[in-house]
């Protein structure tokens, strides 16, 4: 059991959790204000945060599994 990898995995899962809540909020906020000049950048930011949450979630789980089953 590698505690460093477990800690890194938990950190990435925490980042994914934060992104998983903020991404859809920003996305839905941008869709409510389609006439605003910053509609496209805010929409891209919201979608990017949603995809970032998925990415960091997978990486966090991978690090947790690697930390649990480390043979060192």
What does the model show?
- This protein has 72 residues and is mostly helical.
- The model has no long low-confidence stretch (mean pLDDT 93).
- It contains 2 helices and no strands.
Would you summarize the structure shown here?
The protein is mainly α and 72 residues long.
How much helix, percentage-wise, in residues? over 70%
Number of helical segments? 2
- The tally of strands reads 0
Mean pLDDT: 93
The arrangement of helices and strands along the chain is: HH
Terminal CA distance reads 8 Å
Taking all Cα atoms into account, the compactness measure Rg is: 16 Å
Unreliable segments of 5+ consecutive residues = none
Structural category is mainly alpha
Largest sheet: none
Strand content: under 5%
CA-based shape: rod-shaped
Walk me through the topology.
Blueprint: H1 3-32, H2 39-68
Helix pairs in contact: 1-2
Question: Descriptors for this entry?
Answer:
0% strand, mainly alpha, 2 helices, 72 residues
């Amino acid at each position: 059991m590698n505690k460093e990898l477990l800690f890194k995995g938990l950190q990435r899962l925490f980042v994914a959790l934060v992104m998983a809540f903020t991404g859809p909020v920003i996305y839905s906020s941008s869709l409510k204000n389609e006439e605003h000049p910053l509609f496209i950048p805010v929409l891209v930011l919201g979608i990017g945060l949603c995809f970032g949450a998925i990415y960091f979630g997978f990486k966090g789980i991978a690090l947790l599994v690697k930390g649990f089953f480390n043979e060192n």
